[in-house]
Design brief:
This protein is mainly beta. It has one domain: Porin, CATH 2.40.160. 12% of the residues lie in helices and 60% in strands. The protein is built from two helices and eight strands. The chain has an eight-stranded antiparallel barrel. A hairpin with a 2-residue loop joins strand 4 and strand 5. It starts with a helix and ends in a 6-residue tail after the last strand.
């Protein structure tokens, strides 16, 4: 019994001494927003949206949008985004694809050293493996407007939340179209250009 008491006391003393130490907290913010979005820099990243699984219908869906862009001026970037999506359901699957160039602008109004608001426009082509009739188009136009918030968690990494409206008639019957609001989460890595190193 005496050994048990000594062992328990030693473990509790050790645990208390570890907890009492001033351990460094993980970095959750970085004051570098203006340096990351300078002319000549690059951005690469991805947005993830529509991730879900329906247990009743055995329906799984994920959309992934990798992207790359170049800052043509301070606060303004142009680039391209791949539209990739997969929906697996009982009896089949649908694969969605597309390429959408984008223009993004980071607003200096309301900016802080650790975050920025931005607006974005996309326009391009998209399609899917869904076949509804003989009149299906392999590719169709897609366009959209988005707004978002970028929070810098490191000197060159930002986490983003994006709300947008997208319209497309990709690979469906003539005259019909798919459009709607979407909410996505993503990240961007900002790489300095040669002039900014």
């Amino acid at each position: 019994m005496k050994r048990f008491f000594v062992l328990t006391s030693s473990i509790l003393f050790f645990a208390a001494s570890v907890i009492a130490q001033d351990l460094p907290r993980p970095q959750t913010t970085a004051p570098v927003a203006s340096e990351a979005i300078q002319q000549g820099n690059w951005m690469v990243g991805a947005n993830v949206g529509n991730l879900g699984f329906n247990f009743k219908s055995d329906n799984f869906q994920i959309d992934l949008n990798p992207r790359a862009g170049y800052f043509i001026s301070d606060n303004a970037a142009i680039g391209a985004e791949a539209q990739l999506g997969l929906q697996i359901y009982d009896g089949g699957e649908i694969f969605r694809y597309g390429l959408t160039p984008f223009v993004r602008y980071y607003f200096p109004e309301g900016a802080a050293p650790t975050h920025r608001w931005f607006g974005e426009a996309i326009a391009g082509i998209a399609g899917s493996s869904l076949k509804d009739s003989n009149d299906d188009a392999i590719f169709s136009g897609v366009w959209g407007l988005r707004g978002g918030y970028a929070h810098f968690v490191a000197s060159n990494v930002a986490l983003e939340a994006i709300l947008g409206y997208t319209r497309t008639s990709a690979d469906i019957n003539t005259g019909n179209s798919t459009s709607g609001l979407s909410l996505g989460l993503g990240f961007q890595i900002y790489l300095p250009g040669r002039a900014n190193r």
